[in-house]
User: What shape does this take?
Amino acid sequence: MEKYKAIERSKNTGSTYSLLNKGMVPGIIYGEGTEPTKIAFENKVLLKLMHTGAFYSTILDLDIEGKNEKVLPKQLQYHPVTDKLIHFDFLRVQNDTKVTVEVPVEFLNQDTCPGLKKGGVLNLVRREVELSCNANNIPDKLQFDLIKSEIGDSIKISNIELPEGVTPTITDRDFVVATVVPPTVEVETKPTEAEEASQDDKSEDKKEEAKEESKEESK
Assistant: This one.
């Protein structure tokens, strides 16, 4: 696991404004039964981590001026006008800390899925599933193989194999993650007899108006 450097905030590190101007983002580390720690993290490193695609489900190993901390990103705050990152919250974790994370779902063999080959469409009800697990057992992603899926099939959470010790936070129902639905067909609607008659009347009116205009011009 790569280790990232951070600094502990104090009166000597300056105000939030001065930190942001120096390319540092202020934040806080908190955890049950522990005192919060105010830190600052390099903005460009934080932005790089944010764009990995699994930011909120990745444990970060921090070196805070020689003190090691394992944290899980929980919340980011942005400036309401500039949209620049101005604050973050990290959760302090140990290996056995119970955490809640959202993990993406990957669907395998979409190119050979029988239902999709027949024109069906993969309808993603949930792109991510919220899971509960220990901090040292967070899966990178969940996977489901579409090799036998047909049009009309529903993929529920019970159809997806979860690692040992990992459970969905929704426990009162077997919720749907995705479905293979029939292709959308646009039906061409024909005008009714009344609509056709109305269109014919309008056409006749236009012809009469054109004749009247022609007579007026010839006078």
